[in-house]
Amino acid sequence: MKLALMTDETIGLVVTLPNGPQIIDIARSAGVFVPHDPLSSGLLNGAFKDGADWPSILKHWERLQWPLRRLALIAESCPDHPSLVVQSLADRQLKGESAIPIVAIDITDMQPLDERDPTGWRAMKRQFVTPSQEAVEADPTATAETAQVIGFARPNKDESSKR
């Protein structure tokens, strides 16, 4: 996800649309979520209404990444949405002012190291491991099963079974 400083001292979300790379004014486009998702609208409006504040965005990234991802998906699926404020990135010259030297930031979300499984080894291990007897006995949802043996051998006339 890429965020960039717009010329009017606001931060925008960079998306690739069919007509080229665009930048979404996040604060003015937060109305996209109203009325069906007021929480996302409130989070984005509260974080981006005062302009470019990179430290605050990074501090609250955990709460902002979901609404920003949704905003990007809405822009990609419906670029002509009336509540979206979109400007062409090709027309913009992103230059850092002396007060704000950061003009853009690219954030890549990664899972914590212990949750990543790029080879699928942990998933395969979980699939083929049989549960221990203690885990089965401790499981309150497990029901006691009774086994019943059913003989399919047909008895002969003399009541002895042959196969």
Shape: elongated
Count the E strands. Answer: 5
Mean pLDDT, to the nearest integer, reads 76
User: Which regions are unreliable across 5 or more consecutive residues at pLDDT < 50?
Assistant: none
Radius of gyration: 29 Å
Fraction in beta strands: 5-15%
> How many separate helices?
6
Largest sheet: 5 strands, antiparallel
Estimate the helix proportion, in percent.
25-40%
What class do helices, strands and sheet pairing give?
A: alpha+beta
Strand order of the largest sheet: 4-3-2-1-5
Q: Strand-and-helix sequence, N→C?
A: EEEHHHHEEHH
The N- and C-terminal alpha carbons lie at a distance of 70 Å
Q: Topology, please?
A:
Layout: E1 2-5, E2 11-17, E3 20-25, H1 26-29, H2 38-48, H3 54-59, H4 61-77, E4 86-88, E5 104-106, H5 121-128, H6 133-138
Antiparallel strand pairs: 1-2, 1-5, 2-3, 3-4
Helix pairs in contact: 2-4
Q: What's a quick, concise take on this entry?
A:
The chain is α+β, with helices and mostly antiparallel strands. It is 32% helix and 14% strand.
Structure description:
- The chain is of the alpha+beta class and 163 residues long.
- It contains six helices and five strands.
- The protein has a five-stranded antiparallel beta sheet.
- Strand 2 and strand 3 (20-25) form a beta hairpin.
